[in-house]
């Protein structure tokens, strides 16, 4: 420890003949919630915890940047359906996680950030020039739902449990706990950790009368639909939503954040805004069951754009854990306040005796959307430069994605192309929807694969600029031998920002300062230097074969694909990015 951070020796009253150190008790409390991984870089505050975690069978994941640790933890939470634990040392370590705290807050991810701190005897001194020290808690309060400090060893249970309670209550989100040096090795005499249902409201159900009202609306509707957000994936509730969708005989619309397909109803699932079939479905809908979505800007608050057409007096049922969220973005006819893991089965039970026939247009919608996706593959993908068209990059990469793969996305233009050209129906998709934060992709891919135990293949599609943020984490991919293939679209520029220059000033009217970078970077070579396999593919038609071979090799692989920069940013007039005009409607505040 630091020389002036004196350890205080606790003297617990020993009842059962065995005491537990504070650091191990923290692990026990997380285990009760199903958490078995920690992400962070150890220092004197945490080395004991890291050793104990490894002995208890946890995955101990040490990245190369604390910001990446927080993003890994966020992806773990999404894939595991539980909170996640991110650890950082005092001072610069916890400061570097601040961006991921904000990210977790906006992305509604229940990550608990545990930060080291000097012993209180040191922290509270009125001194200058102290090493590796800042007053931390006040800096993070606005980036988390709740913050606290374990001042005394016997506060451990109540503080950790409240953190677990808060991060999963209402709208999920992060919390921050400070872990001062003076409590690290203190001992506790404590009973076994309680199960979650014994200390917090656990998966509450909705009011029975409201469930009955919702069921009546569905029974009497001409065209009920499900609008599904990313909380369905994060709570691992796909099978429950599938049962409801089949009872309703209805189509499923995905929000742009909820693009994971539910096994068994992939064909009847369509992306809101980025498929013509979805436009018709919205217009015809007369009852909308919103599940796991904030009904936010990307779906026009359920009021504007597509919702302003057709059955504009449609009824809305909102399944929402946070009572304060009900009615914020649009009026709700039937609020079902509770955990969707409980409420969806409640609604299913209410409809069990009166299942609906499939909507008469459902088969046509499925057929037309398949034709749309196929037609995209028949496009002329030649480019003036001879480099790969971004649309072809998406098509060939995702056609080769194994059926059970986890899909992680990152980038600007490449993600916009993905909304249109995606050829697969992945059951788990991790990307940064709400915060729009670049560089999350590689840490997300690591955290998702760790949560999965490295069993399923991971396809990570990204752009070069986004990939460079945390490229050092390729070493983590190699260290854990994660089954990951990374396909990098390389235009040697901040492609979306190039388009912004052209849209703002016109083609050729500026030098586009700051958005073009070296054309000599080779991601395949960088991958090899970090222990992974590298491939360089220049022809679009060869991408799929390369992805298949990379997965078959069993080696973490980075595939460098040079793409046409002009196509990528939408042409010299910035008019040709697919569905870009629709994407821009997300930012039409004041018009919705």
TrEMBL record:
Entry-linked InterPro entries: Thiamin_PyroP_enz_cen_dom, Thiamin_PyroP_enz_TPP-bd_dom, TPP_enz, TPP_enzyme_TPP-bd
Domain Thiamine pyrophosphate enzyme N-terminal TPP-binding: 24-128
Annotated Thiamine pyrophosphate enzyme TPP-binding domain residues: 410-561
Record domain Thiamine pyrophosphate enzyme central: where: 211-347
Cofactors that this protein relies on: thiamine diphosphate
Keywords from the UniProt entry: Thiamine pyrophosphate
Pfam family, one: TPP_enzyme_C
CDD domains the UniProt entry points to: TPP_PYR_POX_like
Source organism superkingdom: Bacteria
UniProt KW rRNA processing keyword: no
Keyword S-adenosyl-L-methionine tagged: no
Family the UniProt entry places it in: Belongs to the TPP enzyme family.
The protein's name: Thiamine pyrophosphate-binding protein
């Amino acid at each position: 420890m630091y020389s002036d951070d004196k350890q205080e020796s606790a003297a617990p009253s020993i009842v059962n003949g065995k005491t537990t150190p504070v650091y191990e008790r923290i692990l026990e409390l997380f285990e009760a919630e199903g958490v078995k991984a920690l992400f962070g870089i150890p220092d004197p505050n945490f080395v004991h915890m890291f050793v104990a975690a490894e002995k208890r069978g946890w995955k101990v994941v040490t990245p190369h940047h604390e910001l990446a640790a927080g993003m890994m933890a966020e992806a773990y939470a999404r894939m595991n359906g539980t909170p996640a634990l991110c650890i950082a040392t005092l001072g610069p370590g916890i400061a570097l996680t601040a961006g991921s705290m904000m990210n977790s807050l906006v992305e509604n991810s229940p990550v608990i950030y545990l930060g080291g701190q000097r012993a209180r005897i040191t922290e509270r001194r009125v001194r200058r020039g102290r090493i590796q020290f800042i007053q931390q808690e006040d800096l993070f309060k606005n980036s988390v739902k709740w913050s606290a400090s374990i001042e005394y060893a016997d506060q451990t249970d109540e503080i950790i449990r409240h953190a677990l309670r808060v991060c999963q209550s209402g709208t999920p989100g992060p919390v921050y706990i400070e872990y001062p040096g003076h409590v690290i090795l203190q001992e506790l005499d404590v009973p076994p950790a309680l199960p979650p249902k014994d200390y917090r409201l656990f998966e509450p159900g909705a009011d029975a009368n409201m469930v009955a009202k919702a069921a009546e609306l569905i029974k009497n509707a001409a065209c009920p639909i499900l609008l599904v957000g990313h909380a369905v994936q994060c709570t691992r509730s796909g099978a429950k939503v599938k049962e409801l969708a089949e009872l309703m005989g209805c189509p499923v619309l995905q929000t742009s954040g909820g693009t994971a397909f539910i096994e068994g109803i992939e064909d009847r699932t369509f992306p809101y805004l980025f498929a013509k079939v979805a436009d018709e479905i919205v217009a015809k809908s007369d009852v909308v069951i919103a599940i796991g979505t904030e009904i936010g800007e990307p779906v026009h608050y359920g009021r504007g754009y597509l919702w302003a057409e057709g059955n504009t007096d449609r009824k809305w049922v909102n399944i929402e854990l946070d009572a304060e969220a009900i009615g914020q973005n649009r009026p709700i006819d039937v609020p079902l306040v509770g955990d969707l893991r409980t409420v969806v089965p409640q609604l299913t039970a209410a409809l069990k005796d009166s299942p609906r026939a499939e909507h008469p247009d459902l088969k046509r919608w499925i057929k037309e959307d398949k034709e749309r996706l196929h037609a995209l593959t028949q496009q002329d993908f030649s480019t003036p430069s001879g480099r790969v068209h971004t649309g072809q990059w998406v098509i060939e990469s995702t056609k080769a994605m194994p059926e059970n793969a986890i899909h992680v996305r990152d980038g600007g233009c490449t993600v916009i192309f993905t909304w249109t050209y995606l050829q697969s129906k992945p059951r788990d998709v991790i990307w940064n929807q709400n915060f729009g934060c670049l560089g999350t992709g590689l840490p997300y891919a690591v955290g998702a694969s760790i949560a999965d135990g490295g069993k399923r293949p991971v396809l990570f599609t990204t752009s070069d600029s986004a990939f460079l943020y945390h490229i050092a984490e390729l070493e983590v991919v190699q260290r854990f031998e994660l089954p990951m293939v990374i396909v990098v679209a390389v235009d040697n520029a901040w492609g979306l920002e190039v388009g912004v220059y052209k849209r703002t000033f016109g083609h050729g009217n500026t030098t586009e300062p700051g958005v073009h970078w070296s054309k000599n970077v080779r991601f395949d070579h960088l991958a090899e230097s970090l222990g992974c396999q590298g491939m360089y593919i220049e022809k679009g038609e060869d991408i799929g074969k390369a992805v298949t071979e990379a997965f078959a090799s069993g080696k973490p692989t980075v595939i460098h694909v040079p793409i046409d920069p002009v196509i990528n940013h939408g042409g010299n007039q910035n008019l040709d990015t697919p569905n870009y005009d629709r994407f821009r409607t997300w930012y039409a505040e004041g018009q919705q």
